[in-house]
Write a structure and sequence with these properties.
The chain has helices spanning about 15-45, 50-70, 80-95, 120-140, 145-165, 170-185, 190-215, 220-230, 240-255, 280-310, 315-340, 355-375; strands at about 1-5, 15, 100-105, 105-110, 115. It is mainly alpha-helical. Strands 3-4-5 form a 3-stranded antiparallel beta sheet. Strands 1-2 form a two-stranded antiparallel sheet. A hairpin with a 2-residue loop joins β3 (about 100-105) and β4. α4 runs parallel beside α6.
Length: about 375
């Protein structure tokens, strides 16, 4: 549903359907965070709504950021691409300072006390802005050269390596690299190299997994996760415990679920159920029917972003929305893949729904940027 002003010197569109989808996802996320975390929150803090209150504050700030950014002409952000990249790197290196916070054995947060931010989340939006700017300056015709493609891929790969080395955050590194590849894929007229590269990459990954399974190399944490993915029953008491409990939750929910608030797996069986594994509790409480409804909403959200990107005549705006679409889409696919044990377990949150203030705030800010592109360029579509 699009609102159009009378034709004059310019036309403005506001994609209300995209806003409504985000509102529903965030509202549903708050409901599920309370449902999944109330037991754990009351046991640890004495306040059943502890996680809900913190997420609600982030949601409020996110809505304000989304609406504010939607009113700013998107061309303004092109001038801030370099600054965004510098801020991303600075936030990463601050993890080496006393501001770095260690949780669950990993130093991935900045802050003190109740306030914290994840530099990896800042890096994602910073990289999207930077790549959109670089691609728009190179142009669609020149982007097909090996030099230009190497610059784009090299930039994304360097950021991914820095995220992995500094914060030990493999999932965010994979997402940044995936965003880079998809943005270049959309910008490049010639797709054959992506087909060859994708086939080669999948073959290499399959070979590595085969060798790990064949030699049973479980010396590193990530090797153990791959083995636990292939043979979850052998690691049921350790590495694959969370995954197995999530599968129990999905299986016990059936088609229509047990009902909101009636999950058993959230009562200490699935560790921190409000975080990465929240989709399993969704399946348990509202069933596969409800889970498919949420997936459908994500598909509708991606479709609205695709419409904005494809109808924007300016390459910078189109690439900016493409990066946002890639970020959300990749994260949704990987999260559901982890929860269903389709891919090895790694810490990836479900956008708009999983607990995490930084991720929610910045993802809603990204949607605000996309709304700004649609509004300023008249990229409403249908």
């Amino acid at each position: 549903m699009l609102n159009q002003k009378k034709k004059g010197t310019s036309e403005y569109y506001f994609d209300y359907s995209l806003v409504f989808i985000v509102i529903f996802l965030v509202g549903f996320g708050l409901l599920m965070i309370y449902s999944t975390s109330s037991y754990v929150a009351f046991a640890s803090t004495g306040d059943a709504a502890y996680f809900l209150k913190r997420q609600a504050i982030a949601a409020g700030l996110g809505f304000a950021a989304m609406l504010l950014l939607s009113l700013i002409p998107y061309a303004f952000w092109k001038n801030l691409a370099t600054i965004g990249l510098v801020v991303s790197f600075v936030s990463l290196f601050l993890l080496y300072t006393p501001l770095g916070m260690t949780k669950n054995g990993a130093t991935r947060w900045l802050g003190r006390g109740a306030f914290s931010v994840q530099p990896a989340e800042i890096c994602k939006i910073g990289m999207i802005l930077f790549l959109a700017t670089v691609i728009s300056k190179i142009g669609r015709n020149a982007i097909r050269t090996m030099r230009a493609a190497g610059l784009i891929l090299g930039s994304g790969a360097f950021m991914a390596v820095m995220i992995y080395v500094i914060s030990d955050n493999m999932s965010s590194a994979i997402i940044v690299l995936g965003i880079t590849v998809l943005m270049l894929f959309v910008a490049t007229p010639d797709y054959k190299w992506f087909i060859v590269g994708g086939a080669g990459g999948l073959g290499l990954i399959a070979l590595i997994v085969y060798l790990i399974d064949k030699t049973r190399q479980s010396g590193t944490f990530r090797f153990r996760r791959i083995l636990a993915w292939l043979h979850p029953e052998e690691f049921a008491e350790s590495t694959s415990f969370q995954t197995i409990q999530a599968m129990y939750a999905i299986g016990s929910g059936g088609i229509f679920g047990k009902g909101l608030g009636k999950s058993m797996q959230k009562l200490g069986f699935v560790p921190e159920p409000q975080n990465d594994m929240i989709f399993s509790i969704i399946c348990e409480e509202i069933g596969l029917f409800g889970a498919f409804a949420i997936i459908l909403l994500f598909i509708m959200l991606i479709w609205r972003l695709m419409v904005i990107a494809s109808n924007c005549e300016d390459l910078f705006g189109s690439m900016l929305v493409t990066g946002i679409m890639a970020h959300i889409g990749i994260q949704v696919i990987l999260n559901i893949g982890v929860v269903t044990n389709t891919i090895p377990n790694t810490g990836i949150s479900l956008p708009f729904i999983s607990y995490g203030g930084t991720a929610l705030l910045l993802t809603m800010a990204e949607v605000g940027l996309a709304l700004g592109v649609g509004r300023s360029s008249g990229a409403g579509g249908s």
